[in-house]
Amino acid sequence: MRDLRCVRSLFRGFCTTTAVSDLAGTAPFHDYYVMLHSQNPPQEFPKVISSQVQKALQLALTSSNGLVNFSWSPQQRPPPLPSSLEEEVYSATAFSKAGNVIELDGLTLSNVQATVQRITSPGSAAQPSDSAHPLYIYVCTHAKRDCRCGETGGLVAEAFRQEIDRRNLTSVVKLGETGHVGGHKYAANVLIYPKGEWLGCVTPGDVSNILDKALESRALDWNPSTTPPPVPSHWRGRMGLGKEHQLALAAAHHS
Q1: Of 47, 66, 125, 156, which sees the most CB atoms within 10 A?
Q2: Entry's InterPro entries (predicted)?
Q3: CATH hierarchy code of domain 32-120
Q4: Mean pLDDT (the chain, rounded)
Q5: At a CB cut-off of 8 Å and minimum separation 6, what does 223 contact?
Q6: Overall fold of domain 4-27+129-252
Q7: What residues does each domain of the chain span?
Q8: Do domains 4-27+129-252 and 32-120 have the same CATH topology?
Q9: What is the DSSP string of 80-137?
Q10: Mapping DSSP to helix (H, G, I), strand (E, B) and coil, where does residue 143 land?
Q11: Three-class SS state of 36
């Protein structure tokens, strides 16, 4: 039987928040975000993912305010082949509040500490300073964690996929699906990196406008503390900002 929360949220028009203005300040504080590349889409993830590498990397990044998740896309680099059946090996994409994007290969339990040093080291990767750098858009579609993410997130991910294909933007926009990001009631949740914008209550009808605003933001003179939210009506927050700062920025640009 379908979860009643799913039926109710779809009947009400996707998002179950009482007002879109409730969204601001709900993005978790983080200075780094790491997406471990999965071989399977989040629709197939178990409710709770068991991964020694993910747990060790999350623990090692906690003091640096880092978060670790899983992402899937047909276009992203698959994980390398392990040397044994017991070994976990990942490719990954890491983002920092400084705007750095770091592509990682061969991430295993044995090199977690070296990986953290690489991610958090200043100047470890080139900062994307021009509009040629790709956008990374992630949609939470972790169905077994919460059906609202699976159903509404799945519809939004497909809408993004169609819009990106229609505009011939596959070389500019990298679309991925993710595991649990927090905030089931804000489904569909959309994360836009490398600048780390978090959006909630997104519907397929919002996708075209969000894509427009995300592309426009690439050319902005960027200041994470003062740059206006790209889509204020759906903005949950931004990487590098705490709750109070997110709320203040949202209030300053509320229309």
Answers
A1: 156
A2: Aim32/Apd1-like (IPR009737), Thioredoxin-like_sf (IPR036249)
A3: 3.40.30
A4: 88
A5: none
A6: Glutaredoxin (3.40.30)
A7: 4-27+129-252, 32-120
A8: yes
A9: PPPSSTT---EEEEEEETTS-EEEEEEE-GGGHHHHHHHHHSTTSS----STTSPEEE
A10: coil
A11: strand
